[in-house]
Amino acid sequence: MKNESVVELIKDLTAKLSAVAEEFNGRVAQAAEPVPVGDEPSDDALIEHATLVLAERRMRRKFLPAELFHEPAWDMLLALFASRDDRMPMNIKALVSMSDAPVTTSQRWIEHLHKLKLIDRVIDPTDRRRIEVSLSHVGDQAMKSYLRALLTR
């Protein structure tokens, strides 16, 4: 009886992973469709794609161990790019929550991203305890170039 339960559990998990793989392959095929020459994706399309990539990254953690996908800096860059449509910088606390990493690890990555000139940090003029973070011009251009390359390959 116990072995039958394990076998059924494995079959169920296999079916779910297969469904996720099919969905992923469908999205990859759709994203891989070439964009006609001369048609550059709009900023809205790039933001939408960054949001989709971020959501797909989070979805993986529902099915597989989170430590397999530990890239807090990348998650932060995607989140900052996706939030640029809001025209509001993120504070450190919100950015840390997007990275799914411990606070100290996230803060080290924020410092490193700042040293690489990919993000800007500004003290909130209304609450000097808050630090606002946004993509720098260099970071924004790098993310646009990367996302554009993904959509036009």
Account of the protein in words:
Helices cover 66% and strands 8% of the residues. The longest helix is centred in the N-terminal third of the chain and has 31 residues, at 2-32. It has helices at residues 2-32, 43-63, 72-83, 92-99, 103-115, 137-152, and strands at 90-91, 119-123, 131-135. Helix 2 (43-63) runs antiparallel to helix 3 (72-83). It is mainly α.
Summarize it.
With 153 residues, the protein is mostly helical.
Would you list the SSEs in sequence order as H and E? HHHEHHEEH
Provide the number of structural domains: 2
Look at the structure and give the CATH class of the largest domain: Mainly Alpha
Oligomer: single chain
Q: Distance N terminus to C terminus?
A: 51 Å
Structural class label: mainly alpha
Strand tally: 3
> Main beta sheet, described?
3 strands, antiparallel
Mean pLDDT across all amino acids? 82
As for the CATH topology of the largest domain, it is Arc Repressor Mutant, subunit A
The dominant shape is: globular
What is the C-alpha radius of gyration, as a whole number of Å? 19 Å
Strand order of the largest sheet: 1-3-2
Topology:
Elements: H1 2-32, H2 43-63, H3 72-83, E1 90-91, H4 92-99, H5 103-115, E2 119-123, E3 131-135, H6 137-152
Antiparallel strand pairs: 1-3, 2-3
Helix pairs in contact: 2-3, 2-6, 3-4, 4-5
Distinctive features:
single chain, mainly alpha, Arc Repressor Mutant, subunit A, 2 domains, 6 helices
